[in-house]
Amino acid sequence: MNEQRRGTRRERRKKESKKKHLGSIFLTLIVLALALGGGYWAKTSFFDTKENTIPKTSEQKPAVKNNDEKPAEQPFQPTNKTIGKRDVAIYDEDLTSAKNYTTSAYYGYEVNLTKQATLNNKKYYLASLENQEIGWVEEESLTDDLTKTWEKLSEPALFPILMYHHISQGEDSLYVPKEEFDAHMQGLKEKGYYTLTPEEAYLVLTTNKVPSKKIIWVTLDDGYTDVYTNAFPTLKKLGLQATMNIITQPEYPDNKVTKEQRAELVNSGFVQLEDHTLNHIDLNALEPAEQERQMSESKKLLTEEIHRPVTTLCYPAGHYDETTVEIAKKVGYKMAVTTTYGFGASSDGLLELTRVRVSPGASKETFLAMIGEK
Ligand SMILES: [Zn+2]
């Protein structure tokens, strides 16, 4: 990332020196462009690029053939819609730019649409997520309701929320070896499980609709480096989603994912980051004001870093009480997960969701039995 930034700065310096030499020509061209009435479009359009703080790791999207047409912008009342397509095409500058790419990193998030433009009879919208412009998206990638095609259940939804910590060899019960994790994930794949993002888990719990018959939410606590090293490649390979609960100011950062690794996880579209407080202190042992600080400052830090809404709190060591739940609600989490055993259900309350702890030593068969497979 630093390399990239340095590179960008170098390029910018290069451009600047060129500009000095060609200054008068540029000026003439700009004046001409303004005179021709292109000024409005150039200022407020596809050419409006912002450098994203998170590197793009997703696939390049081939440029749209635009037949030399210029995108035409229409007056538009800003509105919110949800990214309803897994591989959404993002157009950074004009539609023919080489910077265009597809990504699943925005799937399921509600975006703010601020501008509308048409090119070749297709509509495009300029989308922002948590106050960061992400680029232009096609109309067909947006939806008013992510659950539109989901199946309504007759019984209240009940699904396993898995709890992992380390994914590596270790002495205590927090360490699940990579081989075992791989076997568990392979088992989910073979049995046809749909792995939920936090946004989807919330929709399941609040609408009682499901995207698939078999659903599961994979969570990994504390943000250990071995999750990045050992679990992430497996998730990517199998195309499974998992949520990592991050301690935003950990006392021991050495074995935790770095900012660059977190960015890569988020941009992959396979891992979502949620909140495990600032310092991982038992919340119920703290005064209410400090509990609130542990949550709200952490939520703010994480939101600003990943430019995604942070919806879920993971209580450190599973310690919480009624006051903690009240504060979590006030701080604005939509869900919170505990370490109490049980499948996830809205009847527990969205801020007291129970989970299934996965300890070392579970074969694929044992693991599948734990989540109710025969
Ligand atoms: Zn923890």
Q: What is the C-level CATH assignment of the largest domain?
A: Alpha Beta
- Mean pLDDT metric: 86
CATH superfamily of the largest domain: Glycoside hydrolase/deacetylase
The appropriate CATH architecture of the largest domain is Alpha-Beta Barrel
Q: What class would the helix/strand composition place it in?
A: alpha/beta
- Which stretches are poorly predicted, pLDDT < 50 over at least 5 residues? 1-20, 29-57
Termini, distance in Å? Answer: 46 Å
Measured as a percent range, the helix fraction is 25-40%
Number of domains: 2
User: Over all CA atoms, what is the radius of gyration?
Assistant: 23 Å
Tell how many strands the DSSP assignment holds: 18
Along the chain, the helix and strand elements come as HHHEEEEEEEEEEHEHEEHEHEHEHEEH
Largest sheet: 8 strands, antiparallel
Q: Give the strand content.
A: 15-25%
Question: Remind me, CATH topology of the largest domain?
Answer: TIM Barrel
The gross shape turns out to be globular
- Count the DSSP helices: 10
Ligands bound here?
Answer: zinc ion
GO biological process, one term: carbohydrate metabolic process
Subcellular location: Secreted
GO molecular function: hydrolase activity, acting on carbon-nitrogen (but not peptide) bonds
Pfam family, one: Polysacc_deac_1
